[in-house]
Amino acid sequence: MKKAILCLGSNVADANQNIARALEPLKSQGCEVLKTTNDYPSASGYSNRVVEVGTMLGHEELKSLAKQIEILEGRQPWMKEAGIVPIDIDVVMYGGAVVRPLDYVTPYFTEGYNKL
């Protein structure tokens, strides 16, 4: 089993519910939630949560699942540019390696990662 660190975010009215709901499909696809932070705000108006999961999925499979969940939760390609993000799921670390270095150093991620 590999460990992965995910960052989930949302900037709509029911952001915390969206984040919680997005974890369910991860669990149903064999991801075990090992650790999670509480939801916390970022300076850009998002609610965020950092989650450590254990998974048998490969890195690309996990990224694909995250994108499928975003679509399932109503995210459309035009929304981020319009400033509307019902759910965003990024795989920031996988198997101990940083796979999204730009996200890894952002305050919204480091704040949560330090609380895991």
Summarize the structure.
The chain is of the alpha+beta class and 116 residues long. The model has no long low-confidence stretch (mean pLDDT 95).
Structure commentary:
With 116 residues, the protein is of the alpha+beta class. It has one domain: 2-Layer Sandwich (Alpha-Beta Plaits). 37% of the residues lie in helices and 29% in strands. Strands 1, 2, 3, 4, 5 and 6 form a 6-stranded antiparallel β-sheet that branches. It starts with a strand and ends with a helix.
SSE blueprint and pairings:
Elements: E1 2-10, H1 15-28, E2 32-36, E3 40-41, E4 47-55, H2 59-72, H3 79-82, E5 88-94, E6 97-98, H4 101-104, H5 107-113
Could you state the CATH homologous superfamily? Answer: 7,8-Dihydro-6-hydroxymethylpterin-pyrophosphokinase HPPK
- Helical stretch count? 5
In CATH, the architecture is: 2-Layer Sandwich
What share of residues is helical?
A: 25-40%
Features:
116 residues; alpha+beta; Alpha-Beta Plaits; six-stranded antiparallel beta sheet; globular
